[in-house]
Design a protein that fits this description.
5-stranded antiparallel sheet, about 15% strand
């Protein structure tokens, strides 16, 4: 039992010394936050200001101000599931730190999932055309979190690739 704890501690210490671990952890935190917290990334408003639509990562809310203020909320299950897939791929990649080829494959699949997420964000925002040409629409700054996910995934991929090249160069020296 004591040796199991010691080997587990050594594995965690080795895993935390690698920079890609931090990037993968950041991706996991961002995806978890976006899928659970109501952070809007797009809003559209009718020209007269009576109706408004706010699209968050986890729900779409349609608000009618007049004659009586009420709102209709719809869950964005496709976006939530895509964020969940990105998070799960990052977790599995993080835990498979001994198999760098599998890590490279998982981070590559993560790029595909991020591309799917970006296309879903387009469909839920500009693809819907809520009020036609008479409305005004704007993107929010929270859309920049997707750029952070992309950059963290690129940095994690580079770190894994550098580790793999370092191991290969050590094998050649022997």
């Amino acid at each position: 039992m004591k040796t199991l704890k010691l080997t587990l501690c050594l594995h965690l210490k080795y895993m935390l010394q690698r920079t890609q671990t931090l990037f993968l952890l950041a991706i996991i935190v961002i995806c978890g936050t976006l899928s659970t917290v109501n952070i809007p990334f797009y809003s559209s408003e009718k020209e007269n200001g009576i109706e408004r639509v706010e699209v968050s990562f986890n729900k779409t809310e349609m608000i009618v101000i007049q004659p009586m203020k009420h709102s209709v909320t719809e869950s964005n299950t496709l976006i939530i599931s895509c964020l969940t897939i990105i998070g799960i791929l990052s977790i599995v990649s993080l835990l498979s730190f001994k198999n760098r080829k599998l890590q490279l494959l998982l981070t590559s699949l993560n790029f595909l999932a991020i591309g799917l997420l970006i296309s879903l964000l387009y469909v839920f925002s500009l693809g819907m055309d809520y009020f036609g040409p008479s409305g005004t629409s704007s993107f929010k700054i929270s859309l920049g979190l997707i750029l952070l996910i992309i950059s963290f995934n690129v940095l994690a991929f580079r770190g894994i690739k550098k580790d793999e090249e370092l191991i290969r160069s050590m094998d050649r020296l022997r």
